[in-house]
Each structure stands twice: as structure tokens, then as C-alpha cells.
Design a protein that fits this description.
The chain is an alpha+beta fold. Helices cover 25% and strands 32% of the residues. The chain has two domains: 136 residues, Hotdog Thioesterase (Thiol Ester Dehydrase, Chain A), CATH 3.10.129; 78 residues, Gcn5-related N-acetyltransferase (GNAT) (Aminopeptidase).
Length: 230
């Protein structure tokens, strides 16, 4: 990592934060363990960006992720009140391991480079397992710019089960055109609708653990485009 410094353009997913007073030390710079916390927080955002709720997904896949290695390389220091962007990408998926690379930036300046290696393993036996194909394809596909959700457009009879897992229903659902987003495991991510005679999209709902990742906007825009709303 030291030979070629990371650039912001190396990442398509960022977590943004502002340095808090409690995170600086007596030198008035960010205390070095906090950078690893910044990267770990970005990992949570990464799972939301690929539309996979962390806990539910790993339970469905029958495994857990355990950190095997974490390294930080320091190039410059962050100060109190700095606005930082933590870039994160899945650089490699092995047989049972995942390699994530991260760059912590202030503007365009790289402050810290990080590498994390996770092992996918049985949560009880703590024995490594092959990375599930759905997880492998989703992460590598995301890094290549491929969509991580599928979209279904249709009447209530075709989407009711998925929509009901996201929100309560009402009488207007029966005559509406619905948009339902599903992730790589087929689980509902977000939904929106356009009711008969309406000039706007409503009925928006997003899976609780995926809120804040923009899936509400994606569902709204997809539904509007499909139904001709401007």
C-alpha cells in the first residue's frame, strides 16, 4: 500500500464524518485507534450500499465474519472538526476471506490507508467456510458498477408480500402501480407506488437496517420513471 498512495477515485463508497473533540489526544490530533473505528463504521455503510443488512444476511448465509488482520498506515494527521471521507472497497474475495482497502481523506489529501482481512466462518465451530457465491458476486459486482438490486413493477397482486414486509398497507394499494426493490438474496429493500390518478409517487418504505443508503430515492425515481411521473 505504501508504494502507490490511494486516491479518492479508487473508491465508489464513502462514509463521511466530522472529527469530535473526544477523538483527539494531547497532541491535538486524532488518537490513532480512532482511525480503525472510522473504517469499521464505513464497513457498516458498505453493507447498506450493497443492500444487504449485515446481521440478517450473515444469519441467512449460515456464517459470520471474523477479523483476521487490520493494518493502518499513517500519512498525515486529522484535527478536531476536520470533515473526513472514509473510502472503502472490497479489493479481493478469496475462498474464505474478504480483503477490504480503505482510504481516509481530508478533501483530496490521503491521511490514512487501511487494510482489513475478514474470514467467513461457522459462528459456533469457528471453522472457515467458503464465501457464499451470492456475497461474492454482490461485492465484486458492486465494485464493477453493477446493480445490486433487482426491480419489480406491477400491481398489488404481484408485490403484496414484499411490500407488506416493509410497511403497513392501505386501501389505495389495490389500484396502484408498485415498485419493489430486492437485494441479491431476494429480500425486499425498498418500495414506492403511484396510485391511480395521482401525479406523484408515495407509499415509500425502506428496510430499517438499510435506511440512509439512498434506497428510498432509488425506489422513488424508479417508480416515477416507470409510471411516467415528472
Amino acid at each position: 500500500m505504501a508504494e502507490t498512495l490511494m486516491q479518492r477515485a479508487d473508491f465508489r463508497m464513502f462514509h463521511h464524518l466530522r472529527v469530535r473533540w473526544a477523538e483527539v489526544d494531547l497532541q491535538k490530533i486524532v488518537f490513532n485507534p480512532h482511525y480503525l473505528m472510522y473504517v469499521d463504521t464505513a464497513i457498516a455503510d458498505y453493507w447498506r450500499a450493497i443492500a444487504l443488512p449485515y446481521e440478517e444476511t450473515l444469519h441467512a448465509l449460515g456464517g459470520e465474519l471474523f477479523v483476521r488482520k487490520s493494518t493502518l498506515e499513517f500519512h498525515a494527521s486529522a484535527l478536531y472538526d476536520d470533515q473526513l471521507s472514509v473510502g472503502l472497497r472490497c479489493a479481493r474475495v478469496g475462498n474464505s476471506s474478504l480483503q477490504f482497502l480503505s482510504g481516509i481523506f481530508r478533501g483530496e489529501a490521503l491521511l490514512v490507508s487501511a487494510e482489513l482481512i475478514y474470514v467467513f466462518a461457522d459462528p459456533v465451530a469457528k471453522q472457515s467456510l467458503p464465501v457464499p457465491q451470492a456475497l461474492r458476486q454482490t461485492m465484486l459486482g458492486f465494485e464493477q458498477g453493477e446493480p445490486v438490486v433487482s426491480m419489480t413493477f406491477g400491481p398489488w397482486s404481484e408485490v403484496s408480500t414484499g411490500v407488506q414486509s416493509l410497511r403497513a398497507t392501505d386501501a389505495r394499494d389495490a389500484d396502484a402501480v408498485h415498485c419493489l426493490l430486492r437485494n441479491a438474496l431476494g429480500e425486499p429493500v425498498a418500495t414506492a407506488r403511484r396510485c391511480a390518478g395521482a401525479h406523484a409517487v408515495d407509499g415509500l418504505a425502506v428496510a430499517v437496517s438499510l435506511r440512509g443508503a439512498g434506497w428510498d430515492q432509488a425506489a422513488t425515481e424508479a417508480c416515477a420513471a416507470h409510471t411516467g411521473v415528472r
